[in-house]
Inverse folding.
């Protein structure tokens, strides 16, 4: 009997190994090739998508269209996004019919894609750009319906405004949809739109929408200033009044904020108005207010507002003149974060001329905040009061500067 050939033996051995692998759940040898192919396809898809995006960013519409088409044809993880951006590039290139076809393909092949809402918005833009009439009632998605209404506002405001009012009065619509409807109304010059948003800003549709409506009135500029003043005067709700103050600031209306800072009875609201003046850079108004108020709390709020407004001159003037020591101390401390280089000689003068230890400590603190190691060292060398010298050295010991480190060595070597 002949012995089996070596070749037959090797074939049988390979067969048995393959069978054993299959029985153990181990993938056959050829599966690695399939896996490598899939990985290669993913890399190719990502590179094409990146190239297409770069073309899009550089407004190379035709190149973007071709690259996104290739990505979409691969049917991979980027296919739905590629169809959307293909439609976008087609629209930019003036191929509106082809763009709508790409959107239709996206909806057909990817009915659950995250890109569908963006595609709906793009389709509305395409229709508007083509001069087609956009019908908001044909949209089931509220976001897209608002986009359609916004588009309609530019061409047929008399038709769009009642639709917006319907969005606002529908109890089933979420607050964010109503807020967006308010924003669209606030941008309109229509008297009907002004009447609707004015009523909501007066509180006819609840406090949440009222505050948001007031915010949008501020964004719309000073044309609603009179309405905001009426709302402020008529309301006793602190949140509403604070919203009006913020709307004044957004619109740049300083005079009504100054009026509130002068006449408001509620201390918190009055000081909120003062802070708004600081944020508005109303230096003249703040100086006028400081001269007319006798409230220490209000004066301290004005000092802070001076700093926010960048008015170091008035801070220095108040810090270096006679008056309420509590107010002066606040002014001196404000010179640290807000005084700049101009404040350095004033702080040295305050430290050397004042006898009140609290004012002197405030001056030291502000020099520290300014990083003024030079003046702190000079004062420490001259100081004979042990407690004050200790305060000066204490601040210098935590300053990260060569001057302060050298001075520390000087003390150690004495």
């Amino acid at each position: 009997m002949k012995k089996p050939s070596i070749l037959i033996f090797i074939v049988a051995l390979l067969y048995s190994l393959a069978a054993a692998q299959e029985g153990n759940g181990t993938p056959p040898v050829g599966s690695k090739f399939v896996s490598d192919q899939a990985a290669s396809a993913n890399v190719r898809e990502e590179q094409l998508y990146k190239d297409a995006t770069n073309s899009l960013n550089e407004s190379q519409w035709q190149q973007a269209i071709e690259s996104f088409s290739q990505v979409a044809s691969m049917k991979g993880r980027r296919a739905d996004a590629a169809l959307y951006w293909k439609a976008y590039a087609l629209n930019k290139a003036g191929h509106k019919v082809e763009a709508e076809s790409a959107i239709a393909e996206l909806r057909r092949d990817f009915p659950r894609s995250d890109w569908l809402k963006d595609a709906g918005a793009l389709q509305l833009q395409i229709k508007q750009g083509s001069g087609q009439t956009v019908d908001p009632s044909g949209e089931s998605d509220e976001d897209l319906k608002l986009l359609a209404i916004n588009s309609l506002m530019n061409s047929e405001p008399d038709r769009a405004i009642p639709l917006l009012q319907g969005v606002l009065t529908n109890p089933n619509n979420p607050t964010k949809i109503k807020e967006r409807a308010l924003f669209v109304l606030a941008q309109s010059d229509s008297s009907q739109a002004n009447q609707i948003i004015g009523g909501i800003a007066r509180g006819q549709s609840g406090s949440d929408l009222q505050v948001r409506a007031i915010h949008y009135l501020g964004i719309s500029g000073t044309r609603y200033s009179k309405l905001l003043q009426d709302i402020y005067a008529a309301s006793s709700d602190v949140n509403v009044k604070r919203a009006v103050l913020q709307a004044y600031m957004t619109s740049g209306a300083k005079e009504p904020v100054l009026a509130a800072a002068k006449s408001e009875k509620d201390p918190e609201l009055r000081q909120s108005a003062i802070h708004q003046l600081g944020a508005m850079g109303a230096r003249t108004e703040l100086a006028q207010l400081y001269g007319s108020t006798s409230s220490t709390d209000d004066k301290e709020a004005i000092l802070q507002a001076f700093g926010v407004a960048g008015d170091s001159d008035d801070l220095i003037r108040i810090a270096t003149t006679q008056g309420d020591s509590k107010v002066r101390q606040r002014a001196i401390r404000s010179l640290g974060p807000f005084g700049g280089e101009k404040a350095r000689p004033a702080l040295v003068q305050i430290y050397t001329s004042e006898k009140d230890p609290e004012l002197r400590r405030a001056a030291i603190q502000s020099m520290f905040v300014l990083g003024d190691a030079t003046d702190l060292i000079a004062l420490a060398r001259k100081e004979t009061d042990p407690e004050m010298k200790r305060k000066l050295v204490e601040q210098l010991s935590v300053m990260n500067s060569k001057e302060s480190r050298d001075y520390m060595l000087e003390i150690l070597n004495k």
Q: What stands out?
A: DSSP finds 24 helices and no strands in the chain. The radius of gyration is 36 Å.
